[in-house]
Specification:
By secondary structure, this protein is of the alpha+beta class. The protein is built from 4 helices and 7 strands. A 5-stranded antiparallel sheet has the order 5-1-2-7-6. A two-stranded antiparallel ribbon has the order 3-4. Helix 2 packs across helix 3. The longest helix has 16 residues. It is globular. The two termini are 25 Å apart.
């Protein structure tokens, strides 16, 4: 069974060869998500990478980022400044427990990419938005 985490805004995340994929959330294995000690760090990482890409940085491995000759790495001071920006004013997320209506074409790997279903979910009452 899957758990769906939706964002309150679209994120652009790099896939193959730094191509940017528009995603509206994450569809993850529910059991793995609920038992992972790193789930909140992963959500932070995804949102930070989206912000970094939005600012024009590229990455081959998701750990080293570069733009116009300037490099920085996951966890260094530049990364931490992006983390703080995301925590203060970045895209929020809500966990949607019931995602049985997701179909195979709604996702690209673990990225939720169906804009119409995302818009329907955003109209639901009771979504709890988090940073």
């Amino acid at each position: 069974m899957k758990i769906l985490i939706v964002f309150n805004d679209v994120l652009g995340l790099p896939v193959e060869k730094n191509e940017i994929l528009q995603t509206y959330g994450l569809a993850l294995d529910k059991e793995k998500w609920n038992t992972s000690p790193y789930r909140w760090e992963y959500l932070c990482y995804v949102r930070v990478v989206s912000r970094i890409c939005k600012d024009g940085f590229k990455s081959e491995d998701g750990m080293e980022f570069e733009k116009d000759g300037y490099k920085f790495y996951y966890g260094d001071l530049t990364w931490i400044s992006f983390e703080r920006t995301v925590e203060e004013c970045g895209v929020q997320y809500a966990i949607v427990e019931d995602c049985r209506k997701l179909e195979e074409g709604d996702c690209h790997g673990e990225y939720f990419t169906n804009k119409d279903k995302w818009e329907e979910i955003l109209k639901r009452e009771g979504l709890e938005w988090r940073r």
